[in-house]
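Case study 2.
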Amino acid sequence: MPPLDAALRLERAFTCDPANLSVVSVLDGGARLLTAGRDGVLLWELATGERLATFQSRTGSVSRVIGLDDGRFLLAGDSLAVMELDAGTEHALQAPWFRRGMLFAVSADGARTLSSPDRTTIELRDLASGTVIASREPLLGTISGPPEEQPGLSCLGYDRSHDAFYAEVSWIDLHMYSASRRDYYDRTNLTHLGTDDQNHLEKRPAGLWAMIDGARVAVGRADRKLATTEAHDGGVALARILLATGTPRLISAWGDGTIRIWALTEPEAP
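Prediction:
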């Protein structure tokens, strides 16, 4: 393991039903936390661990939440809906093309969606009407190796800095590490805009990434140095690790329903 240069200090912890940890997302620069799952969408105050609100969703058990530029959220479960979180209102979308677990992404303004019905085709749609605007095969390419190691479509997303959709293709490289390539597509007609060969699979906000080996939580920086802390007992099974903005902190959500907030501290001088 790379040398340790920092430590994680537990600041506070609170619990919720593990069934409501399918989604964990930091809001308002780390002031609030959104979790979602079987009971819909739950809103928490991070400073106290107090549950601020619970919103039932008509989409069923929520498996994904996507924030839009106007403050609304797209909820995905058995169906799609748009929620205004502070108002607690939800508008169901007519989306017979959608199914739980499929790859899809939404533009920041909520007008367009990119989805893949079979991981061999990508479709650009008007989100409100569901009308297909354009479709094409993603650029998979080939590498040296057996068929099971060839590139495959692994992720669809929307990049605000490019104002474009992207399709992420991944494969196993010669050193048995996951590698990936990101292709960007025009949000209006699916024209291919360019390729980014950087490996995005381990990328996290602010250049940090997180991992768990069953006993420890680890945070790596671009210099490959790690900060670690021992995991707690009680059915440890990581749901999400996220980095809150501002002061470096980690928010870990565990399979036992415990949410913990950690501060990243620098080592003491020798």
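Residues 59 and 79 are 5 Å apart (CA to CA).
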